Amino acid sequence: MRHPLSPVTLLRNVRPWGGDASDIHVSDGLITAITPTDATAASAPGEVDGRGLLAIPGLVNTHAHIDGSWWGLPWQPYGGAGGTEGRIAYERERRGDLGLPSAERTRAVLAEFVRHGTTAIRTHVDVDPGVGLSAIEAVREAIAEYDGAITAEIVAFPQDGVLRRPGVIEMLTDAARAGVEHIGGIDPASIDRDPVGQLDAIFAIAAEYGTGIDIHLHDAADLGAFQFDLILDRTERLGLTGRVNIAHGFALAQVDAARRRDLLQRMAALQVTLTTVAPLRLPQLPLEELDAAGVGFGFGTDGIRDLWSPYGTGDMLGIAWQYARSSSIVRDEQLRRVVELATSSAAGLVGRDVHDLVVGARADIVLVDAENPMDVLVRTPPRELVIGGGRVLHTT
Q: Is the pLDDT of residue 88 over 90?
């Protein structure tokens, strides 16, 4: 199934980042010029009237699980035991009943992402003895149907642990050989109870096959910070600067200020990034400290409507709002910064050098009826038009 996507050559009368009325010229999926709006110019094929709406870059989801959602199926009641181990067990028990993983289910959640303005994704995809690499194949099939209008990087994700399940290391190696962009890990201490062993295994795969690394790290406080140290040590020793991300990283907000400063300085030097899903029950990662240290940072939805939680809409602006609100962010420069984190500043987390409304960037553009970027964040208005790679993905 291919999506019928209309190409755009000129997006007329929009306000990039809330600025002056402009025309955005597009060719071969790239922004080629941004000029003052010319109300006298004749219309041409591929022209879209932006009606004076505010334009921002396409939203970037840096931490998704698009293989596990039951979106599009009847409501599924929440069940099983709580905690990470309980959720893992429940998902393994029920996913086959819901036809997970499959391209069909992935299509449904992708449609929600697109409708809400997401045009670039980093998604964790389960690799374990129950599904092998089939979830990666299903995700690739669903993404390919957009014919490049949206892009996705895949993290081969060992949700059920790396060392405690026979064959997982071999499957991760196979996934790296097959071209996934990143190898995942999860709570090396509390899941595998062997942080050195898990990290040595996944870092060895990344070093051999040239992938990135993206590790779920939920472990709190000192235990989590200890694993930060182990990750940073291996990043430095193996020369993987710029190729490692830590997802969640709750410990960073829970240790004392001096310990956090030292970790952030090392992370910045090694270009180790962070991604968050802005969980409400925990302290948020501190934006000003991250920016001051120069640590890259992005937002993600995590799973939405899956066997871990019934919550989630696929709206990245909603995640950005949640982060800002729970961080007590109120000043204009900070509010705008949060919108940048959900869009342009996340470029490197999805394999792009630039992701913005500038000449040379991919034409990933979202139009909203808003006064300025701050208004976009606090109201999260509907996405009036979504363009990905110079093609219309969604319009009201």
A: no
3-state secondary structure the chain: CCCCCEECCEEEEEEECCCCCEEEEEECCEEEEEEECCCCCCCCCCEEECCCCEEEECEEEEEECCCCECCCCCCCCCCCCCHHHHHHHHHHHHHHHHCCCCHHHHHHHHHHHHHCCEEEEEEEEECECCCECHHHHHHHHHHHCCCCCCEEEEEEECCCCCCCCCCHHHHHHHHHHCCCCEEEEECCCCCCCCHHHHHHHHHHHHHHHCCEEEEEECCCHHHHHHHHHHHHHHHHHCCCCCCEEEEECHHHHCCCHHHHHHHHHHHHHHCCEEEECCCCCCCCCCHHHHHHHCCCEEECCECCCECCCCCCCCCHHHHHHHHHHHCCCCCHHHHHHHHHHCCHHHHHHHCCCCCCCCCCCECCEEEECCCCHHHHHHHCCCEEEEEECCEEEEEC
pLDDT tens digits for range 200-230: 999 999 999 999 999 999 999 999 999 999 9
pLDDT above 90 covers a percentage of the chain that reads: 90
Start-to-end CA distance of the chain, whole Å, equals: 22
Looking at every residue in the chain, the average pLDDT score rounds to 96
In this model, does residue 175 exceed pLDDT 90?
Answer: yes
pTM over 0.85: yes
pLDDT tens for 327-371 read: 999 999 999 999 999 999 999 999 999 999 999 999 999 999 999
Residue 2: the pLDDT is: 65
